[in-house]
Design a protein that fits this description.
113 residues; alpha+beta; four-stranded mixed β-sheet; 6 helices; globular
């Protein structure tokens, strides 16, 4: 398994995801999404795995409100803003190759091994 956890340092679910993989001695790579964001390729892979852009957006985040995403009609504008402002992503985003989850999903992660 090649696990990547994209998360925020103050996100409780990100810490729970880390603990899940640590307890099972599964190697993972933790990436601070606020600092490094997602590349376009990573974004496309995650978007395809979770069912679209809407699933990735945290509508409760400060960045979401400040960017007025809800008023953008063009889907490309929404994706562009999301990549420019990674604080809008729901976390943790856990990737394993082409598979991905959003949030704390231990039932799904257990099926990966």
């Amino acid at each position: 398994m090649n696990i990547q956890i994209f998360g925020k340092s103050k996100c409780f679910d990100t810490k729970k995801a880390e603990r899940y993989f640590k307890e099972r001695r599964i190697k993972y790579q933790l990436i601070d999404i606020n600092k490094y964001g997602l590349s376009k390729g990573e974004y496309q892979s995650v978007k395809n795995a979770v069912g679209g852009t809407a699933a990735l957006i945290d509508e409760k985040s400060k960045e979401y409100e400040s960017q007025y995403i809800q008023y953008l009609a063009d889907k490309n504008d929404v994706e562009e803003r999301l990549l420019e402002n990674p604080g809008m992503f729901k976390t943790p985003i856990v990737r394993n190759g082409k598979k991905a989850t959003i949030g704390y999903q231990p039932d799904i992660w257990g099926e990966w091994s």
